[in-house]
Recover the amino acids of this structure.
């Protein structure tokens, strides 16, 4: 048996440390999108903002459905809209923020597994890492450069085609 150690890198910004201006602007756009969330079942509202290589910022929010699998996360709403509106334009960064109806969200909100896989697909397609900025309503902000820091053993095209 062989044991491999996987290391991930996370930048953390707390109350006194300012985020870089571009990250702060994108996070603010994600936070301003929370009010468009449709979350009558969970009461958990998520906003996402995507920064594209052409300078555009695309936002999205979670959209729930009584048949839970029919809803969609904020990250995928924003990423899929960006891809359909600006095909071929690279995604530089995504910011994610959340709030809840019944409790404060004082921790960074990370993408779910499905959203991580979509981010992996986009990175593979564009051959370029995406900066991922994660925040709740208050407190700590976490930033990673590249999806491998959130999904270290990802499934990708090479594995699908038996290349790795």
């Amino acid at each position: 048996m062989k044991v491999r150690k996987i290391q991930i890198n996370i930048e953390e910004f707390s109350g006194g440390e300012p985020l870089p201006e571009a990250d702060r602007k994108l996070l603010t756009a994600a936070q301003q999108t929370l009010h468009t969330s449709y979350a009558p079942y969970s009461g958990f509202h998520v906003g996402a903002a995507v920064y594209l290589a052409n300078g555009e910022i695309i936002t999205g929010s979670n959209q729930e459905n009584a048949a839970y699998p029919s809803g969609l996360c904020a990250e995928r709403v924003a990423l899929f809209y960006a891809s359909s509106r600006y095909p071929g334009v690279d995604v530089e960064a995504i910011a994610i923020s959340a709030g809840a109806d019944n409790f404060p969200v004082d921790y960074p909100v990370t993408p779910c597994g499905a959203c991580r896989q979509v981010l992996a697909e986009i990175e593979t397609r564009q051959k370029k890492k995406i900066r991922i900025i994660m925040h709740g309503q208050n407190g700590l902000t976490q930033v990673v450069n590249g999806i491998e820091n959130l999904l270290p053993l990802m499934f990708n095209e090479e594995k699908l085609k038996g290349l790795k």
Notes: Strands lie at 11-13, 44-52, 57-61, 91-100, 131-135, 141-145. Residues 50 and 79 are 7 Å apart (CA to CA). The first strand starts at residue 11 and ends at 13. The chain has one domain: 30-160.
